[in-house]
Fold this protein.
Amino acid sequence: MTTTLKGSTKIKNLNIEGNFTTNGATSEINSDTVKIKDNILTLNSKETSNKVSKGKAGLEFSRGSSPSYQIIYDESDQQLKAGLSNNLKPIASKEYVNTTISDTKTEIIKQMNESDFLNLAPKINYGEDTVKVTTSGLTATIPTMSIFLGGYFSKITAAIKVALKANTTNYIYMERDSNDRNKINVSVTQTLTITEGSRQFSRICIAAVTTNTSSVTNTKIYRINTGYNDYIFNS
């Protein structure tokens, strides 16, 4: 049996055994306590598209004259958001957090490369590694690499080739350019002016290469401070 009520009808107590449908534009419930047996509430149930056509769907909590608080799904970027209606923020999922951490790490590395290390990040412990110097005949090649030297981070973006002198030991040095903090100069001498394994502030010896008449007979490579990706941040 179907019962239709039109106009203004006041009912003190109403018990509905079957389904209940209201077609009004606005429905208000003024009860002090509302109990719903269903464990999942469906919003936007009449959607016929493959997305939320109105852009957003969710819950809103009135705060009187202050901006309301909302928990909504935003179709524009497919994220669940929460906060004041005028300042919604994504609810942090594992995927969102991982992406944010990755983006932050990339930005920190960029800033460390462009900025003064001593002022920007005084708590960084830098890692050490060897430079993969290769040789052919009487030529040594320093590969692309990153390096901490003279208080700054630098990156060698193109391999550098240097000529070696025959029948001697050639010491290969890296030195920060005194006029350009972004530039690293490479030189070769036959004199060791820095104790093996030690460093100067703006100049280091990265390798000792011994030669005969036409080729390299031995290469000793020293450990130096390298690589942004090797840095570990103190807590």
Remarks:
- Residues 120-126, 227-235 have pLDDT under 50 and may be disordered.
- The longest strand covers residues 66-74.
